[in-house]
Amino acid sequence: MGAYYDDAVVKELTDSIVARGESLLQIFREHDDEREQATFLHRQAGPMPFDTIIDAGCGTGAMARHWHAVDPNLKFKLLNIGAAQLAHADPDMEQSVGDIEAMPYPPACANGVVFSYVLGHCDLDKALSEAWRVLRPGGWIFIYDMATMEQRIRVLNYDIRPARDLFKAIRRQGFHCPKAWINAGKSMSKVCIGECGSLDQLKTLLEGAYSISLKFHKPTGEAHEC
Ligand SMILES: C[S@@+](CC[C@H](N)C(=O)[O-])C[C@H]1O[C@@H](n2cnc3c(N)ncnc32)[C@H](O)[C@@H]1O
């Protein structure tokens, strides 16, 4: 949970970030405009017709809000470790305060789980095993995050893991049928730049890290499904 331990501090920081016009909490971006960024990720994560999606570590709920605007058939369960950021989310969406390592949901209640810039805050195997538990057969996980080629690095209190470790952990759970993208990551969050001084400083800290998207499926049990 780390940096997100103190809800009052998170509230103050998040309120000021939102007041500056930012609501996606993602370091690397493919687009400066948040709607375009979220739409880009919606395209990567699709298809997801009529799906119920858990946004695990949902931040301000901005990604769910944008995805729902693109596709009103999607239903969301927003999950965050604290209440402060959920206060910015769409009040019509189901919201829960809880840990992605022990999700407050029954088994097989969702078609998809999104992990966007959150797995570096937690135990990878625990979060993925929870995703497996809450997904119906045929369900999917979509991960948008940073990865490295070689060594694990820790930046701004966040673990950035080698891509091969992510793949191994995901496969260890039983997920299959991967789709993977190395993104351009050409834009960077102004929020994080603010926190660590300058864009150059941030780029130095993130040397060796790049932006990835991954989609994997939970098998349905039928043969030859990929
Ligand atoms: C960098 S932000 C990403 C927010 C959002 N997913 C996005 O893409 O804009 C990380 C989020 O994960 C949440 N978080 C961190 N650790 C968590 C945990 N163990 N369980 C649930 N949420 C967690 C934080 O509260 C924060 O909202």
Written description of the protein model:
- The chain has helices spanning 7-19, 34-45, 62-70, 124-134, 163-173, 190-195, 199-205; strands spanning 28-29, 52-56, 75-80, 94-97, 110-116, 135-148, 153-155, 158-160, 176-182, 187-188, 209-217.
- The strands form three sheets. The protein has a seven-stranded mixed beta sheet with strand order 4-3-2-5-6-11-9, sandwiched between helices. Strands 1-10 form a two-stranded antiparallel sheet. The chain has a two-stranded antiparallel ribbon with strand order 7-8.
- It starts with 6 loop residues before the first helix and ends in a 9-residue tail after the last strand.
- By secondary structure, the protein is α/β, with parallel strands linked by helices.
- It has one domain (2-217): Rossmann fold, CATH 3.40.50.150.
- It has seven helices and eleven strands.
- The mean pLDDT is 93.
- Strand 5, helix 4 and strand 6 (135-148) form a beta-alpha-beta unit.
- The structure holds S-adenosylmethionine.
- Residues 1, 4, 24-26, 57-59, 62-63, 79-82, 85, 99-101, 116-118, 121-122 line the site of S-adenosylmethionine.
What are the bound molecules? Answer: S-adenosylmethionine
Return the domain count.
Answer: 1
What CATH architecture label applies?
3-Layer(aba) Sandwich
Query: What is the N-to-C order of secondary-structure elements (H for helix, E for strand)?
Result: HEHEHEEEHEEEHEEHHE
Number of extended strands? 11
Q: Work out the radius of gyration.
A: 17 Å
User: Count of DSSP helices?
Assistant: 7
Classified by CATH, the class is Alpha Beta
Strand content: 25-35%
Question: Judging from the principal axes of the Cα atoms, what is the shape?
Answer: globular
Instruction: Look up the CATH topology.
Output: Rossmann fold
Name the helicity range.
25-40%
Q: Runs with pLDDT <50, length 5+?
A: none
Provide mean pLDDT, rounded: 93
Overall SS class: alpha/beta
User: Tell me about the biggest sheet?
Assistant: 7 strands, mixed
CATH superfamily: Vaccinia Virus protein VP39
Strand order of the largest sheet: 4-3-2-5-6-11-9
Amino- and carboxy-terminal Cα gap:
35 Å
